[in-house]
Amino acid sequence: MSEAVITEVKDALKGMETKFNTAMSGLDAFKSEIAPKLGKMDAFDEAKFNKVSETIASAVEESQKLTGKLKAAEDAFETKHKLLEAELNGVKTALNRPAAGGSNDSDKEAKAQHKKLFNQFARSKKSNQQDFHEFIEASDAPAEVKALSVGSDPDGGYLVMPEFGGIIQTKVFETSPIRQLASVVNISTDAYEYVLDNGEADGEWVGETTAPTTETTPQFGKKSIVVHELAAKPKATQKMIDDGIVDIEAWLAGKVADIFARKEATAFVSGNGVGKPRGILSYAAGTDITQEQIEQVVTGSASTFTYDGMVDLQNALKEPYQANASFLYKRATNAALLKIKDLEGRPIFNMTYDKNAGLRPTLLGQTAYFANDMPAIASNALAMAYGDIKAGYQIVDRIGIRVLRDPYTNKPFVIYYTTKRVGGGVINHEALKLGKIST
Fold this sequence. Notes:
Layout: H1 3-34, H2 43-95, H3 105-123, H4 132-137, H5 178-181, E1 183-186, E2 191-196, E3 221-226, E4 228-232, E5 235-237, H6 238-243, H7 248-270, E6 295-298, H8 307-315, H9 319-322, E7 326-329, H10 331-338, E8 351-354, E9 358-363, E10 366-370, E11 382-387, H11 389-392, E12 393-406, E13 413-426, E14 432-436
Parallel strand pairs: 1-12, 6-14, 7-10
Antiparallel strand pairs: 2-3, 4-13, 5-13, 7-11, 8-9, 9-10, 11-14, 12-13
Helix pairs in contact: 1-2
Subcellular location: Virion
Pfam family, one: Phage_capsid
Protein name: Phage major capsid protein
């Protein structure tokens, strides 16, 4: 309440008090004037006079009560006025203090002390969930901060902290599911050798007394898949490892494992075999499996796949491999395939629903897998593979991911020397076919 309002209320009370005193004086004069005449009144007039007197007395009593209430209100206003004056003086005193975070030495020391206290609090590991203000109370009191503001760290911004979730949102990379589809074997040496049975015996029809002349005996061949080494060397400071909001070592291990998986998947598709596994697309075109050739079926168009070309690709594979065969192509290629329409404008291919696997793309009745490492549709590109990948491609693991933790070589960094030895190659060339966009 303002000072002007309080003054106005006081003036009103004084006016009412003056009017009341004037009324009381008039009543006393009336009594003095009427007293000599009371003896001349009859009973009726006396009763009327007594009634008027009682009414006046009641009015006087009510007026006295009102005066008391007004007096109490005046006292309350006076008390409130004094409290407001005291509060206003306190605000003026606070505003007249020098601002926190100024340029003088004491302000700089206070700011540094505040920052130091918060850093200590942020790095302390308390099992009882200690609050910051409890930490401050248990520490040396910092310099007074006049006003709290989120925009200034020392003036309260430290107290408004973001809440960290338990999950780091990580960028997702697409890869190729070759390891999921191929054969995988673990070995204890640096190469995997396998025997080739690509020959065949010969036979002929003979009569009852005719001796056979065929003496062809099948022969064996031998090939080997050499393992190669993947390596990474991430590093982090010991302080980061100790104080990070997540398990830094586990996070680094996950990132390295992810890049290793994508690197080897790329090699299984297109690797040249030099220092890395040899991929499906690196073999020469042809049908002579003794020369490690893989048949390439041309689609008939230089800009996309055609229905006829895919039918030719599927039927180039021998029947024993058809039961376990699947298509392999880039996700973007799938969009182009679903847009292929018949002469009536209806899509030729669709997606089937598997209650166990959800929506699964199929092509010509066979399962299709998206392989990000397969080439995009372009002239002369090997943009599709079809066949029994498990029978055709062999992955060789020498040892899983191995991590050597080195805190000494490059202090204060801890180096995680991570390696994996893996190889891969086609072992059955007739089990795979490649779809090629026309030149």
